[in-house]
Design a protein that fits this description.
Distance between the termini: 22 Å
Largest sheet: 6 strands, mixed
Structural class: alpha/beta
Order of helices and strands: EHEHEEHEEHEHEHEHEEEHEHH
Number of helices: 10
Number of strands: 13
Length: about 290
């Protein structure tokens, strides 16, 4: 990669950010298209976020991704939000448009794009169980409602948090039935029998961690299991899905899809097909 005086800058804000795959996949796509950009990581602690945003704007950075723990905290620091970002209350992509910094959320559309690609079917009319009630669950819920899911059940360790999540959207998406249940075996078993898609939006699965006392034996044999965790590629939840003969996918497709959408927002060019995914898989195989 050659840096010129004309090279435009993109990046990612997070704390920590050293583990991010975004620089690998974004720079690979930029290189294939021969675009005069460079994508770099910015490690920004929570107390430095406001100063970082002011600095990036002053430096003329064209755009940047936003990851944990800044996705919600950055909202009041931006000029305006896209409809999806406003609805979700979180931003994962920022684009400089003249003197404005505009916040987008490509996680939402990236998740649905990944679901369709990985399972070869549309979530419209489906019954979905979502594990977790955090920011990733909000993006998944909005995407699923916009895609026409018939029913979404949120299962969370804190039932109150699950109820707050669905309460936020129940009046906005009247075409989708929303409910919240505790994340325990007694509550999950009857639900697993009727759902089409199970989505894990929590961090459970990273490093081999697993849900206690949770199995998929009751799940519909035609169901699909989607785990947003992608390291390791086969989480305990996905291994259990394989044992039960269920279709399964990890979150790599979502990571790539949201990255491709951000790439198009910044550059005005479609990301070259398959380049980001290949770059990540190559990097992961070297670890």
């Amino acid at each position: 990669m050659t840096i010129f005086g004309t090279t435009r800058v993109l990046g990612i804000l997070g704390w920590p950010v050293g583990h991010s795959m975004s620089p690998i996949m974004q720079n690979a796509a930029l290189a294939v298209l021969g675009l005069d950009y460079v994508y770099v990581p910015f490690a920004v602690p929570p107390e430095g976020l406001a100063a970082a945003v002011i600095g990036l704007k002053a430096l003329g950075v064209d755009g940047f991704n936003v990851t944990i723990p800044h996705k919600s905290a950055i909202v009041p620091l931006l000029t305006r939000l896209s409809p999806e970002a406003e609805l979700i209350g979180a931003v994962n992509t920022v684009k400089r448009e003249g003197d404005e910094l505009v916040g987008y959320n490509t996680d939402c559309s990236g998740f649905i794009k990944s679901l369709r690609a990985d399972f070869g079917s549309d979530p419209a009319g489906s019954r979905v169980l979502v594990l977790g009630a955090g920011g990733a669950a909000r993006a998944a819920l909005v995407g699923l409602c916009q895609a026409g899911a018939r029913e979404i059940i949120v299962a969370n360790r804190s039932l109150e948090s699950g109820r707050r999540l669905i309460g936020t959207f129940s009046t906005r998406f009247s075409g989708t039935q929303l409910a919240a249940i505790p994340q325990d075996v007694a509550s999950l078993s009857p639900v697993l029998q009727k759902i089409d898609i199970l989505v894990n939006t929590t961090s459970v699965g990273m490093g081999g961690s697993r849900f206690p006392d949770f199995n998929l034996t009751a799940m519909n044999r035609h169901g699909c299991v989607y785990d947003m965790v992608y390291t390791p590629p086969e989480t305990p939840l996905l291994l259990e899905a394989a044992r039960q003969g269920l279709r399964r996918a990890n979150g790599l497709g979502m990571l790539v899809a949201q990255g491709e959408l951000a790439f198009a927002l910044w550059t005005g060019e479609e990301a070259p097909q398959g380049v980001m995914k290949t770059a990540i898989e190559s990097a992961m195989s070297c670890k």
